[in-house]
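Exercise 7 asks you to align residues with tokens for two separate proteins.
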Amino acid sequence: MDALRTFFAIAGTVVAVLGLGAGVYYFRYQKRRNQLRISLTSRAIISSHSPKEITVNYAGARLLDPYVVTIRIMNAGPKDIRSDDFDAGAAIQLELGVPPINITDEADGRELDFELVNTRLDIKPILLTTNRAYTISLLCNGLPSPQLTRDRIWGTDVSITGDATVSRLRELRELVQAAPGQTVLALLVVPVVLLIAPLYFSQLPEKDPDPAPQTTTTVTVTSAATPGTPSPSSATTSPSPTATP
């Protein structure tokens, strides 16, 4: 029991301090900065197992290694990103490394102002509302290797994730960003619970140690015979004298 109390005391104190610090940091820092997340998913159209007769052509040219690339732009911050928040009115520049072809749906394309320049995607200054995702679809001849070459937006952290980490991290991040109040509450409540746990365990009554096993000792007492007094067990009967006729 003592070892358990010590463990909870140490673990609760450490986690409580870290949790409280994380809660304060998130509340003071993350709440006042916007988060613009750009993620890419790439899907090959033709695999190595596809028949050779299957080809993809665009404008009379054959694409030897075609990929459909979906670019998702998410404003996960607490405020809208306005067009005048873009540094000097310059676009966000995303280098893909391969020439892209725009195949974005017309409805999605009207929500964003972007331009394809050689192997680069430029996202021009436009209103990006909070907790809103925007999608761009591209056809590329080769697997893109995305890299941000210009990402200056006032009061906003811009980051990019590729195919390997986009799915789970994106879902978790968007969940946290969509519910900042619940996140801060969790970061503050959990450390308090861990601080109270050692106090609770310290109030538990201690168990009595197991009693020592009782042993039964049998003592045999043998009484000594009094000298000169024959014991009943040792008494002998003398034969009666026989009368002489």
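Second protein for Exercise 7:
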Amino acid sequence: MSSQSERDARVREHMEMAEQYLARAFEHLEKKDPYDAAEKIWAAVRHATIALAEKYLGTASPPEGWTWRRFVKEAFTKAGLSEREAEELAAYFIEVRSKLHGDCFYGLFYEESEHKPLMDRAKQYIELVNRLLEKAPQLS
């Protein structure tokens, strides 16, 4: 078991990485490179999600037998969001993984009307995670 201060340090590191990847993603978009932008968005969303899960669930990955969708939903629910909001955010996480990480980056398939809205929404997602982390109770 890690100490609370170690967990908090990991949470901060993941959020710093999320913000760095997000900034790099939009630099790639400015350079007309949606493929690398898509992968950076995925990395940003993934790091922010891991930070949230570490803080509220005490772990960075789903327990055995849990899907990532269930895990992400549980993290957002524990952070105080409604079940509906948590489900929507878990669906966004899965969609980013599938469409940006999979289809766009690995599949080299980019459609602006499909992929750009997911990229744009990442900023809101990361801002929301930051707000939820700021309001998290400190555990002893």
